[in-house]
Design a protein that fits this description.
459 residues, alpha/beta, Rossmann fold, Four Helix Bundle (Hemerythrin (Met), subunit A), 3 domains, four-stranded parallel β-sheet, four-stranded antiparallel β-sheet, 15 strands, globular, binds adenosine-5'-triphosphate, binds zinc ion, protein biosynthesis, zinc, ATP binding
Length: 459
């Protein structure tokens, strides 16, 4: 395979060559488990699930995604929820697993939890002391950034600008404003572990450096996460890991998904503009939401609007419609993924292009009568859908299944859309008018055109 991936480290699309010809190691930063994850948190889950599925077709893949179960956000949530940290993190982890499963995401090969890797973190911090990169002050251990000249190679932010841009007040004990925490003290009300620097807990960044080292070694192939993690989290991970093991170690390809925005603003817990998956699953099936997260190229921002889910639903209806008479148990005529789908994914995971190829395959299937040619294409559509984590439900049950959002469009909304469609038709913008018709159909609203007017009924 000739997979090309955009590497944040170089800012270029590069040919992917794993360290071992037949194995790939990949680490994705996982959730901090203190609350229900929001839809934005699932963009990396779904995007890198496609990467995992695709790589698995060609390589033996070890996919590690951590669970951050010790963090100040968790400690604060424990205080407000009244639950113990164990109960809170376990419950949140379970929700995360359920939600990921409903989006059709495969379980990673290994899912390490931070709290079971404290000795590894302590050992790594000791190495940083040996390398002259860490210091202890007022029970805190900090990484001394000026001692690592390569710092900033991922985010390409100059140290001067980082300091100027720092929003938080710089703690007085820091030797340099850009130094960051490796270990900090805990009081008796906070979770903590004994360490050479007293009773305390790790900083967030050291968690990922220690867990990736334990499960993937000093050097591995891919490290991924959301773009919001490039600085400081990933920059600091690089500083710790290369600081301990030498330049040229650690992750070789850095992949970052664009953020999910809502009305142009990053969806995030701190801004309060988030939608949980649980809420969204009341309106749409997991597969529809999965597709909605894949409709935009993974590096671009993805803006969630009222049209996103209906559009995803209409696409799935069309694709499943082409599989309506498909017998997945029939002797396989083809187990191959469509070559154009492979080519699209090889091009920095161009999932929207792969989807448009699935659309064309469906169009060809619709034109064919029952027979071996039709079955062959249906097989190709089905196996190609699988690499995107789509089209694996029974087509009949998908097509008969209802999504409750069809109830959601009010009469006023429907009429507003019909007016927009009429205007589009008058402007001869048939792409737009068809899109509105398909979107309404996905909402269970059927349009009936007559020369004089358009009427509608719910299906
Ligand atoms: N709006 C978003 N769009 C895409 N990815 C996101 C978004 N928000 C978070 N992520 C990603 O989700 C993963 C988990 O992030 P993290 O646990 O830091 O989120 P969080 O604690 O919910 O923070 P917040 O919601 O305040 O950003 C990371 O890979 C992060 O990049
Ligand atoms: Zn991380």
């Amino acid at each position: 395979m000739t997979l090309c991936l955009h590497n944040t480290l170089t800012g270029k699309i590069e040919l992917f060559r794993p360290l071992h010809p037949d194995r790939v190691s990949m680490y994705v930063c996982g959730p901090t488990v203190y609350d229900r994850a929001h839809l934005g948190n699932f963009r990396p889950v779904v995007v890198f699930d496609v990467l995992y599925r695709f790589l698995k077709k060609f390589y033996d893949v070890t996919y590690v995604r951590n669970i951050t179960d010790i963090d100040d956000k968790i400690i604060n949530a424990v205080r407000t929820s009244g639950k113990s940290i164990g109960v809170l993190t376990e419950e949140t982890t379970r929700f995360f697993h359920e939600d990921s499963q409903s989006l059709g995401a495969l379980q990673p090969t290994i899912e390490p939890r931070a709290t079971t890797h404290i000795p590894e973190m302590i050992a790594l911090i000791k190495v940083l002391f040996d390398q002259g990169l860490a210091y202890e002050v007022q029970e805190h251990v900090l990484f001394h950034v000026p001692n690592l000249p390569s710092y900033g190679e991922l985010s390409h932010i100059r140290r001067k600008d980082m300091i100027a841009g720092a929003r938080v007040e710089v703690a007085p004990y820091k030797k340099d404003p850009s130094d960051f925490i490796l270990w900090k003290p805990s009081d008796e009300t906070q979770p903590g572990w004994e360490s050479p620097w007293g009773y305390g807990r790790p900083g967030w960044h050291i968690e990922c450096s220690a867990m990736s080292l334990k499960h993937l070694g000093e050097s591995f192939d891919i490290h991924a996460g959301g773009q919001d993690l490039i600085f400081p989290h990933h920059e600091n991970e690089i500083a710790q890991s290369t600081g301990a093991h030498g330049a040229g170690t650690f992750a070789r390809y850095w992949l970052h998904n664009g953020v999910l925005t809502i009305n142009g603003e990053k969806m995030s817990k701190s801004l309060g503009n988030f939608i949980t998956l649980t809420d969204l699953l009341q309106k749409a099936r997991g597969e529809t939401i999965r597709l909605a997260l894949l409709l935009t190229h993974y590096r671009q921002p993805l803006d969630l609007t009222d049209e996103t889910l209906p559009r995803a639903r209409a696409i799935l209806n069309r694709l499943y419609g082409a599989l309506e008479d498909f017998d997945r148990h029939s002797p396989a005529l083809s187990k191959e993924i469509d070559t154009q789908v492979v080519t699209a994914l090889e091009d920095d995971l161009n999932i929207p292009l792969a989807l448009s190829r699935l659309h064309s395959l469906a169009s060809e299937i619709y034109k064919l009568p029952t027979g071996s040619q039709r079955s062959l294409l249906q097989h190709t559509l089905w196996t190609s859908g699988e690499v995107l984590g789509l089209l694996q439900s029974e087509p009949q049950s998908w097509l008969q299944g209802k999504e409750s959002s069809s109830q959601e469009l009010s009469v006023e909304e429907i009429e507003e859309w019909i007016d927009k469609r009429t205007a589009a038709r008058q402007a001869k913008n048939f792409i737009e008018s068809d899109r509105i018709r398909d979107m309404l159909a996905a909402h269970g609203v059927l349009l009936l055109d007559s020369p004089a007017s358009t009427t509608w009924r719910r299906t």
